[in-house]
């Protein structure tokens, strides 16, 4: 996001605890006015942490509450809040028969059980966004689906599977039964789509997705084919695997932006990337 804004000529500042700068501390002490606040801070939002480390919920709620309190108090121009596809109800993600997830499935006044505590955090964040909007603060809400990129952590499935293919691992390990379907969207499209939604000024939540579903096993097979080998696949059904089927409805996004990077192209980029 910072790279994209810099290329567009924006003056930017990034706050990242990995660089020694805590966002909560910034929200407590600073009052600078910004044209756009991109709130992407979260504690360990990957699958293993979502399923087994609920302590992160308190930290994420603290981050969201502190940001919205600061943004309202200091009169920020606009906030971009990155919610998540994890906010969608679990009961409509059990198989392809439910179809693609449309934004209106979520009713903040009658919320149904989302994906683990991380999903509850994002639903609460969207509620905070709605309340902040009632004070006059412009807030854009986007719901990224399975975002990925070449330099993503191996804590996330895309990079984990691609790196196994790069190392030509045999057997090739996949968490779950391999049939879990996800809507994979490249980070370039997450960023460009987010900024297109911001530019539109819409107050409706918008999915960041492609509308196409690919299973974990399909992703692994494409990666291995591109890496030029055929391993034996071992499926670890005792590991965290997430919901069975999560594919977004891109209709609202397509009025503003069309994703450009296909999954096979994204895999090829990741395999070509040099270094750790």
Can you give a write-up of this model?
By secondary structure, the chain is an alpha/beta fold. It has one domain (2-272): NAD(P)-binding Rossmann-like Domain (Rossmann fold), CATH 3.40.50. Helices cover 39% and strands 13% of the residues. The strands form 4 sheets. Strands 1-2-3-8 form a 4-stranded parallel sheet, with helices on both faces. The longest helix has 19 residues, at 56-74.
Summarize model confidence as the mean pLDDT.
93
Task: Specify the CATH homologous superfamily.
Answer: NAD(P)-binding Rossmann-like Domain
Rg, Cα atoms, Å: 19 Å
Q: Pairing-aware structural class of the strands and helices?
A: alpha/beta
What is the N-to-C succession of helices and strands? HHEHHEHEEHEEEHEEHEEHH
- Give the low-pLDDT segments: none
CATH structural architecture: 3-Layer(aba) Sandwich
> Count of DSSP E strands?
11
Number of helices: 10
CATH class: Alpha Beta
- Please summarize the sheet with the most strands: 4 strands, parallel
Distance between the termini: 21 Å
Number of domains: 1
Strand content: 5-15%
- Overall morphology: globular
Helix content: 25-40%
């Amino acid at each position: 996001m910072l790279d994209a804004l810099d290329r567009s000529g924006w003056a930017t500042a990034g706050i990242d605890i990995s660089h020694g700068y805590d966002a909560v501390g910034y929200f407590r002490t600073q009052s600078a006015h910004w044209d756009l606040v991109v709130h992407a801070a979260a504690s360990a939002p990957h699958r293993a942490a979502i399923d087994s480390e609920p302590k992160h919920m308190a930290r994420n709620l603290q981050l969201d509450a502190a940001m919205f309190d600061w943004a309202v108090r200091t009169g920020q121009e606009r906030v971009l809040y990155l919610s998540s596809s994890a906010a969608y109800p679990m009961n409509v993600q059990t198989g392809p028969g439910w179809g693609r997830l449309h934004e209106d499935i979520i009713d903040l006044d009658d919320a149904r059980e989302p994906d683990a505590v991380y999903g509850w955090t994002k639903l609460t964040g969207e509620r905070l966004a709605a309340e902040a909007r009632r004070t006059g603060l412009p807030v854009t809400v986007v719901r990224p689906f399975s975002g990925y990129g070449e330099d993503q952590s191996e804590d996330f499935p895309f990079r984990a599977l691609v790196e196994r293919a790069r190392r030509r691992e045999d057997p090739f390990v996949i968490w779950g039964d391999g049939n879990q379907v996800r809507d994979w969207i490249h980070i370039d499209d997450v960023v460009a789509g987010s900024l297109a939604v911001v530019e539109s000024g819409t107050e409706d939540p918008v999915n960041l997705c492609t509308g196409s579903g690919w299973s974990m096993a399909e992703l692994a097979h494409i990666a291995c084919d591109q890496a030029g080998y055929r391993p034996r696949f071992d499926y670890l059904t005792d590991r965290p695997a997430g919901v069975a089927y999560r594919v977004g409805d891109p209709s609202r996004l397509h009025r503003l932006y069309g994703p450009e990077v296909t999954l096979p192209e994204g895999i090829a980029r990741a395999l070509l990337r040099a270094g750790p």
